[in-house]
């Protein structure tokens, strides 16, 4: 089992290339099931979750080829991957695959739309609360599908002539359920209107890709999306948008350590709220031609209160990282988590480094301390794991983070990117 050893105390200076977004790549890859032509995706990140989904899609009959690395590509090269699903060979997504990763459940939308049936295991993934699939089921039922749960699987069947367009309002905002309904509705007969849809950039990215494949979609990025069904989709070429969570994570790392770093290949519009929050905390962030420059000189870290909200609010996926930053703020800050009920598991681990955090329901009170001290800590989920890395970058002495497989699911070459900017981070294999 790998661990990561961090020796704290170094500023970050240099360039960190931002990878393609995991949360956009996964639904885009799943969209390849919607057509018998080839879907080519550029800027696909090297991550455990992507590799896992490649295996799952292969199981359904998708042929996958990856472009080799080119001479001109530097260390941080991104991949171009071609997905071709001439025929769907299996409409079952088995438990052993879906249990490893929640997003693989999303295949239910394309399978149902293209084949008229699907048998998909109920999902696994990070242990952050219940994250129910009811929203997916109700959304697909609105399009005329029959859904029954049988032995841990959902058996889904479309009506005889395929799915039928409908108007549906999500009872709460769900990115995953918006993705699935968007995909399913593109091949439904008639018009579908989705109200209270997720507005995240990743939803917009998927809609742009589906539109390039021939779908008729309006309103992506707003809370009402209208889809006019088409009979089939063709292939397309699409570039995965930059990862806003990775962008925000490294911006917080620079705000924590001090220094001057260019986050290359990303853009501010993907995370305006988080950037504004970081500015309030004392970082200077400017947009350049090639990305975002993050600077924090000698001034300290100021406390800021945040509430996590669906996009365009403060992302829940940056909550743990921001908490790590606030452990060193000059005063008291509060973080309220409104999205996931069980997303404060990193609190006790940060406390091991000397942080002063108290919890009351969905709110954490963080009293900034003047120093953190290195200690052995354990990652509990993907975003929590990187919050420990951020804290470790300033902690005195050595911080050892175990269970780093969580990190590998969402951060491409983390050690390498940080080390190039002066950090001391190394992976240790037991």
Characterization of this structure:
The structure is a single chain. The chain is α/β, with parallel strands linked by helices and 430 residues long. It has 2 domains: 2-18 and 242-429, Enolpyruvate transferase domain (UDP-n-acetylglucosamine1-carboxyvinyl-transferase, Chain, Alpha-beta prism), CATH 3.65.10.10; 22-239, UDP-n-acetylglucosamine1-carboxyvinyl-transferase, Chain. Helix content is 30%, strand content 26%. The chain contains 14 helices and 24 strands. The strands form 6 sheets. It has a 4-stranded mixed beta sheet. A hairpin with a 2-residue loop joins strand 20 (356-360) and strand 21. The chain is globular, with a radius of gyration of 22 Å. The N and C termini lie close together (6 Å). The mean pLDDT is 94.
Helix content: 25-40%
Low-confidence stretches: none
**Overall pLDDT level:** 94
Radius of gyration based on Cα positions: 22 Å
Number of domain modules: 2
Strand order of the largest sheet: 22-23-1-24
CATH architectural group of the largest domain = Alpha-beta prism
- CATH topology category name of the largest domain: UDP-n-acetylglucosamine1-carboxyvinyl-transferase, Chain
Task: Provide a count of the helices.
Answer: 14
CATH class division of the largest domain? Alpha Beta
The gross shape turns out to be globular
């Amino acid at each position: 089992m790998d661990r990561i050893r961090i020796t704290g105390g170094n500023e970050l200076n240099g360039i960190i290339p931002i990878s393609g977004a995991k949360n956009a790549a996964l639904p885009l890859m799943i969209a390849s099931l919607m057509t018998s032509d080839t879907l080519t995706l550029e800027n696909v990140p090297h991550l455990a979750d992507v590799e896992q989904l490649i295996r799952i899609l292969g199981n359904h009959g998708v042929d996958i080829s990856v472009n080799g690395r080119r001479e001109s590509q530097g260390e941080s090269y991104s991949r171009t991957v071609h997905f071709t699903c001439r025929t769907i060979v299996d409409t079952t997504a088995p438990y052993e695959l879906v249990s490893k990763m929640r997003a693989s459940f999303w295949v239910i939308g394309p399978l149902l739309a293209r084949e008229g049936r699907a048998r998909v295991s109920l999902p696994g993934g990070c242990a952050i609360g219940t994250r129910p699939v009811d929203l997916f089921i109700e959304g697909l039922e609105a399009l005329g599908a029959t859904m029954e749960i049988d032995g841990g699987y959902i058996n889904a069947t479309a009506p005889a002539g395929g799915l039928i367009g409908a108007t549906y309002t999500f009872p709460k905002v769900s990115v995953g359920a918006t993705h699935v309904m968007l995909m399913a509705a593109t091949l439904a007969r008639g018009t579908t209107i989705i109200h209270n849809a997720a507005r995240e950039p990743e939803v917009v990215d998927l809609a742009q890709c589906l539109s390039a494949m021939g779908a008729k979609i309006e309103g992506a990025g707003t809370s009402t999306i209208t889809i006019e069904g088409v009979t089939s989709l063709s292939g397309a070429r699409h570039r995965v948008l930059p990862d806003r969570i990775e962008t925000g994570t490294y911006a917080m790392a620079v705000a924590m350590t001090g220094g001057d770093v260019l986050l290359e290949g990303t853009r501010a519009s993907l995370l305006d709220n988080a950037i504004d929050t970081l500015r309030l905390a004392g970082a200077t962030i400017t947009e350049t031609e090639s990305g975002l420059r993050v600077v924090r000189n000698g001034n300290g870290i100021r406390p800021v209160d945040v509430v996590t909200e669906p996009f365009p609010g403060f992302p829940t996926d940056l909550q743990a990282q921001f908490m790590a930053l606030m452990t060193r703020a000059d005063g008291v800050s509060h973080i309220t988590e409104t999205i996931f009920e069980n997303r404060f598991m990193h609190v006790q681990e940060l406390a091991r480094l000397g942080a002063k955090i108290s919890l009351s329901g969905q709110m954490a009170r963080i009293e900034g301390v003047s120093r953190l001290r290195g200690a052995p800590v354990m990652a509990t989920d993907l975003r929590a794991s990187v919050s420990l890395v951020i804290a470790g970058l300033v902690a005195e002495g050595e911080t050892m983070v175990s269970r780093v497989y969580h990190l590998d699911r969402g951060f491409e070459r983390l050690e390498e990117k940080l080390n190039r900017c002066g950090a001391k981070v190394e992976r240790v294999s037991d």
